[in-house]
């Protein structure tokens, strides 16, 4: 059976509606029996002692909509897991094609592992406290530096920066790392440099982290929030880029090739354009907005949410509008998908 009623089912249902919402056995031709059975199975016709009565199509629409959204969420989650599932195969393929230990292999490992997680660096680039030791693999001579040298080199880049720092920082941000980086970030801003940082909503869920963000935005830093996966990267003056070089964040790479750095900066700009200003995220949402968000994340429609909470659809629509602004969602399904990343109940 398809998701929606076909032409024959629609015609028979409309005949029942035009007949006062009732359908009698004598109204049916023998060829109508399969269509009648399909309408009963869908819940559009309800059997009675004298025939069948028409039921509201809205319940069917809500049910089918929920099933489709659940199916779509399942497919999206599968799509997100797929790169990680195929990761070992991709790495084996890359290693087989590149000379072991040669420049090609080093470059492949450095660029191909941009899917690393979220603990390597602080705000404008200082390594976060509590993160694994990070070594820097050079992309030209293969030089590997220790953790102390990495911290020193990144600090030098921040100190030497003259125009801008671009920082894409997915995942939670260690508070201690942000505090340690504050003085250097503020010094950067006072020199007239631009500091633009991308975070995910989970970052600003912590009130202490939000206060650190406010200290920077108060001095001119620009912060936006993107509620979708993106890659970690730091770009200094569009001349040097720093990316993870291992999935476990045990290494990071300095990239100075102009074409590579320009590509990474363009990726940042693309993500930046889709993100929303952090100001919409700094104030926590109301209790009602949170409840509506949780119900949407479970797949309920706007009408179903209003019924569940005993409020008008107009009230729910107003809260949904605020949630869309907060998460940068363009449609109700898009919003529900993003909220599922935060609400699992």
In short:
The chain is of the alpha+beta class and 345 residues long.
Structural features, described:
The protein has 13 helices and twelve strands. It has three domains: 7-55, no CATH class; 59-85 and 285-345, Arc Repressor Mutant, subunit A, CATH 1.10.10.10; 98-282, Endonuclease Chain A (Endonuclease, Chain A). It has helices at residues 7-18, 33-42, 57-97, 103-112, 147-160, 175-190, 207-217, 258-274, 279-282, 287-297, 302-309, 313-327, 332-340, and strands at residues 22-23, 45-47, 52-54, 135-137, 144-145, 164-168, 194-199, 222-225, 233-236, 240-244, 251-255, 276-277. The longest helix is centred in the N-terminal third of the chain and has 41 residues, at 57-97. Helix 7 (207-217) links the parallel strand 7 and strand 8 (222-225). It is an alpha+beta fold and 345 residues long. Helix 12 crosses helix 13. The two termini are 31 Å apart. Helices cover 52% and strands 13% of the residues. The model is unreliable at 99-122 and 126-144 (pLDDT under 50). The chain is elongated, with a radius of gyration of 27 Å. The strands form two sheets. Strands 5-4-11-10-9-6-7-8-12 form a nine-stranded mixed sheet, sandwiched between helices.
